[in-house]
Amino acid sequence: MNRKPYLLGLIASVLLLSACASNGVRMLTPGMVTSNASAVVVYGVGVEGNWQAERFGIELAAYDVESQSVAGSCFRFNRTQATVAATPGPVQYFAFEVPAGNYVYIPRHGGARAQAFAAPGGRIVYIGDFVYEKNKDVALRRELDSLQKSRAAWLPDLKGQISQAVATPVETVRVFTCSL
Q1: Residue pLDDT, tens place only, 76-123
Q2: Strand 124-132 to strand 39-47: parallel, antiparallel, or no bridges (unpaired)?
Q3: For residues 170 and 45, what is the distance between their CA atoms, to the nearest angstrom?
Q4: Exposure letters 71-80 (e unless 16+ CB within 10 A, then b)
Q5: Does the pLDDT of residue 157 top 50, yes or no?
Q6: If pLDDT is split at 50, 70 and 90, which confidence band does 170 have?
Q7: CA atoms within 13 Å, Cβ hemisphere of 133
Q8: What does the alpha-carbon distance between residue 148 and residue 162 come to, in Å, rounded to a whole number?
C-alpha cells in the first residue's frame, strides 16, 4: 500500500488548518514594546452576574467598514480575545497591539449593540469595559476615568496618552465561513 498520497494529504490538511490561527494581534504583557505603526487597543472585562461557565470573554475582530464585514479569511483573522474568571469581581484591563484599522464587537450574550471602534496607527485607544451584568446582558461602559484610575495596577508599562476610541454603530456584520 502506497502511503505517500495519504501523508501528503494529511500534511496539506494540517498546514491549511494551522493557517486558521494566523493572527496579527498580540496581547501586551509587562515589558513588551510596541511598534509606532501599530495601534494599541485597551478594554476591560468584568463579571457582576452569574455566568454559567468557568470563564467569561470578549472578542473584537478586525472590521471592514465599507463592506460591513469581518476582515480576514480562514487563513488570516486578526482579533483580540480576553477572558476573566466567571466569578463576580473587579474589571480587569487588557491591552493589545493591533494593525491599525477598525475592530468590531459582535454581541453574543445580549445587551450591548454591535459597534466598530477606530484604532489609528501610533495611538492608544480605550474601547470601554464589557461587563456581564446581573440581568444576564453585557453592558459596554465607556468610562475613561475608570481606566485611568486603574492604569498603574493593570497596565504599568503602557506609555502614552490613552484616548477614547471613536465608536460607530454597526447594523450588519458579515462573517466569513471556512470549509474544507
Answers
A1: 789 999 999 999 999 999 999 999 999 999 887 666 688 999 999 999
A2: parallel
A3: 21
A4: bbeeeebbbb
A5: yes
A6: confident
A7: 11
A8: 8
